[in-house]
């Protein structure tokens, strides 16, 4: 692993109280929980033997809060015990929100956990996919938890996974997220777990994803309040327009296997949470394998090789440095070939092209140029991760490479 910051996705359980139709873990009520012994080894190894100066823990599942607050009490205590090198150590939790109550939120807030939810659109779009039990929808619960989090002074974000159901409704999604003060992260559907049995109902073409994302981009760009954040738009705009900026979203960063690792409940190690359960990509078990030997494993080498192949096959793409061939798991699950480009390649190209065109149009003075300035001006303004951006008026945007590279 060769990055300054390691992101560790910890699958504390594969159990879940929801039955979302696209769940790549195929989680249900009878999964496996991480034992305290495995948790101890995991935190010890990640904080003491990984080379990175920062470790970002993302608690994932299944539904991680099914493990109970005692589990997360242990997490915090073990991180204190083993962070003897004073690494930057942060926590985030990706939850369906159903178990968030005052006590849980207080705990997560006190211990500085960032909280991420999932929401696929207004009730009629969300509740055909994100189900509790066979038929019951989950929209009302999610919106109620967003309200509760705000009462506790927390803003949050949610993953919106784009499927055939919601891909024609970008305006409805944008309005919903904006009204609720939610930061949006676009999720690309992968063909794995339960999604595999529901491909006909959920699957979408790369171009359909691209059309959705382009329309959403315009809604976001034209929104004059500048509050709603949408990933990966911020990362794309910054990487295209800001000198020296690299894509921060994993799907476009390239070589994600050098920055991410997933620990399954039984300690098995994978390149990312999406690979969980795909034996060919298991590095070994955290109880037996030293983290500095991961690079020697066949699974790691396949991913290294993939990036070399992609560098060749995508090399002529004008957007390569902003995309890097996309997500290896998307390639693997959607095309069956880990060495191929991301399944959504054509959709990505539509977005990159559109960003460049909108930027060119914005160079004729208009409000939209301010939005580009805002995004590239960096965060801050006292609002924290999801807060307002600062405007940097000191930059001459006409000198930025996107103008000469793609548009001139
Ligand atoms: S496999 Fe895909 S989702 Fe996982 S870290 Fe890599 S790019 Fe991100
Ligand atoms: S847009 Fe497509 S061709 Fe271009 S770098 Fe990305 S995956 Fe490769």
Question: What is the gist of this entry?
Answer:
The chain has 408 residues and is an alpha/beta fold.
Q: How does this model look, in words?
A:
With 408 residues, the protein is an alpha/beta fold. 40% of the residues lie in helices and 13% in strands. The protein is built from 17 helices and twelve strands. The chain has a ten-stranded mixed β-sheet. The chain has a two-stranded antiparallel sheet with strand order 5-6. The site of one iron/sulfur cluster (SF4) has 9 residues, from helix 11 and helix 14. One iron/sulfur cluster binds next to helix 13 and helix 15.
| Rg value | 21 Å
| Helix-strand pattern | EHEHEHEHEEHEHEHHHEHHEEEHHHHHH
Q: Roughly what percent helix? A: 40-55%
State the low-pLDDT regions, or none. Answer: 379-408
Strand order of the largest sheet: 9-8-7-4-3-2-1-10-11-12
Which term fits the overall shape?
Answer: globular
Beta-strand proportion: 5-15%
- What's the story with the biggest beta sheet? 10 strands, mixed
| DSSP helical segment count | 17
| Helix-strand category | alpha/beta
Bound molecules: iron/sulfur cluster
Determine the N-to-C terminus distance.
Answer: 40 Å
Report the count of strand segments: 12
Arithmetic mean of pLDDT = 88
List descriptors:
408 residues, ten-stranded mixed sheet, 13% strand, binds iron/sulfur cluster, 40% helix, globular, two-stranded antiparallel ribbon
What is the fold's blueprint, element by element?
Blueprint: E1 5-11, H1 36-48, E2 54-60, H2 68-82, E3 88-94, H3 102-110, E4 113-118, H4 123-126, E5 131-132, E6 136-137, H5 139-151, E7 157-162, H6 170-179, E8 183-188, H7 194-197, H8 199-202, H9 206-222, E9 230-231, H10 233-241, H11 250-253, E10 260-263, E11 268-270, E12 284-285, H12 298-313, H13 320-323, H14 328-335, H15 345-362, H16 367-376, H17 401-407
Parallel strand pairs: 1-2, 1-10, 2-3, 3-4, 4-7, 7-8, 8-9
Antiparallel strand pairs: 5-6, 10-11, 11-12
Helix pairs in contact: 1-2, 9-15, 15-17
The structure holds iron/sulfur cluster (SF4) (2 copies).
